[in-house]
Amino acid sequence: MLTSTESFMITLEKWLVALRSDDFIAARRTAEHLIKDGELLVIHPEFVRCFEKHCPGFDPKEALFHLCQFLMCATDGRARALTQWLKDNSPELA
User: Fold this and answer.
1) Is residue 24 one of the residues assigned to a domain?
2) What is the distance between the alpha carbons of residues 12 and 2, in angstroms, rounded to a whole number?
3) Residue 94 falls inside a structural domain
4) How far apart are CA 36 and CA 34, in angstroms?
5) Would you place residue 13 in the very low, low, confident or very high pLDDT band (cuts 50, 70, 90)?
6) In the prediction, which pLDDT does 54 show?
7) How many domains in the chain?
8) 11 is in which domain, residue-wise?
9) Angle CA(35)–CA(72)–CA(19) in degrees, nearest 5?
10) Radius of gyration of the chain (CA)
11) Residue-wise pLDDT tens digits, 24-56
C-alpha cells in the first residue's frame, strides 16, 4: 500500500515525465491530480509538524495549492513557448 508521500511523489514524477515528453495535456492533468494526492499528505500529522518547522506561519493546504498552480503555469508556459518556437522555425508550407 502506498503512503500519501509516495503517492504524491509518484504523481509529481509523472508530471515531470509528461512535461519532458512535451505531453502538455497529460502534464496539466497530472498537476491538477497532485492537488488530490497532496490533500492526503497535508493532513498527515508528521507532515504537518515538518511543514510547520520549515515554513512557520504558512498553511500547508494553501502552499500545496500554490505549488500545483505553479506547476500548471510552468506547463502552460512551456507549451506556449514550444508552440511559438515551432511557428517561428517551421518551414513555410507551399
Assistant:
1) yes
2) 14
3) no
4) 5
5) very high
6) 93
7) 1
8) 4-89
9) 105
10) 17
11) 889 889 988 888 888 888 888 898 999 999 999
